[in-house]
Amino acid sequence: MSDPRAAHAREEHRLAGAADRLAAQHRAQRDRLIRRLRTEDPRRWTYAALGAAVKCSPELAAAIVKAPQPRLSD
Is residue 16 part of a domain? Predict the structure, then answer.
């Protein structure tokens, strides 16, 4: 017979995995939006301006913009 705490831990593990996948989707969308802003108007969207607008550090904004882009397969 399974211990209810083990079942609870299994469910928490499942939920944590789902939360990780959802967080990754949100980060990817954030990154796409930041890159688009910077590409469309780099004079307006400095790393400092991006950081302030998104509420992240300018260093994170710069890292997102400068990171290699994943290739879409044909």
Answer: yes
